[in-house]
Amino acid sequence: MPSAQIIAIGTELLLGVTQDTNTAFIARTLNQHGVDIFKTAIIGDNPARIAREIQNALEQADIIITTGGLGPTVDDPTRQAVATAFGVDIEYHPELWEQILARFQGYNRQPSENNKRQAYLPHGALAIENPVGTAPAFAYERDRKIVISLPGVPSEMKTLLLNYVLPLLQKRYDLAGITLSRTLHSAGMGESNVDELVADLETLSNPTVGLAAHPGQVDVRITAKAASLELAERLIQPVEAKVRRLLGVKIYGSDAETLESVVAALLEQHNLTFGLFIDQGLEEVAGEITTLPVFQSIQFIPGRGVPAPVLETLYNDKKEHNYVSITCPDADKPKVVDVLVYLESENYPSQRSFGGHPALIPLGLKNYLLSTLRETIIQTKGDICKK
Where residue 280 sits, what CATH number does that domain have? Predict the structure, then answer.
């Protein structure tokens, strides 16, 4: 099975001005088609550094895919960087310039002289026409290794990756199998507890099972390698079923599902609404929950550890409305919180302490709050969303 390295190019990525979504898409796509990802990297617009990264990658991986740096300006360095990495010059391709001119004419625009830079490629590179943009891509092969440079614009990158790069790699490396992953999301249980329950599954070789911990959430990833999508699904299904049995209600969703969307669907299915009260003592760490749309109203309450009877008086003397409160019971233990779900005249209290770095508390607080609300509803009214 060939291995690959992905290099995202652009100083704007390092500055955080632009988010790198290309790497994740390329990694998922290659993994699904039997290519192992050895490493990913982000490099600024510096041709010498990019060239060194490519040279290092060639020693460790079979396939190097770069994105970005193919524009018409001086600070678009990828063409020169690849040429430097292989010790060749860049050369002008008049046929590429004709393609670029035709693309601009189709856009009813006039190219500048700078756009001519996009018609230069490393000597010996294979040009890849870009049908959805003005920047041609290219591939350079040597010693059974290949570097493929794609545009940084996500829509252009995806088009070329799916329509050109995958067929090229499938032909070069006889890629017959696929890799399929299923990620199950759990909340309300720590990583060590999840690990204890699924430890036997983590010794499997195919599919493999691994854990990824996030604040207030633990993901269980099941990855299968097989000759076809159908066979991969067959490998995953019994393992997924066992994980769901072992973790029960703690599993709230899979893959792209979020805890917030799952709770919103549950509220809609049961025709429930909740208000949210937040202890003022938690104001510094409550940022993640102050705008949650699953709550009909959100307000801060004075003092630490306001007891439930007082909270009910603050909200509604007749107790006609459902609410959730999150309070800090002890000023000396700011990482300990109480969550109270008041649902149809009944109190459902719980408590959680948060460890780790303080910066992780806001997200952990949000996930704990939502998972507590979700489990309370399921235990009292059932999870009709899953029926």
Answer: 3.90.950.20
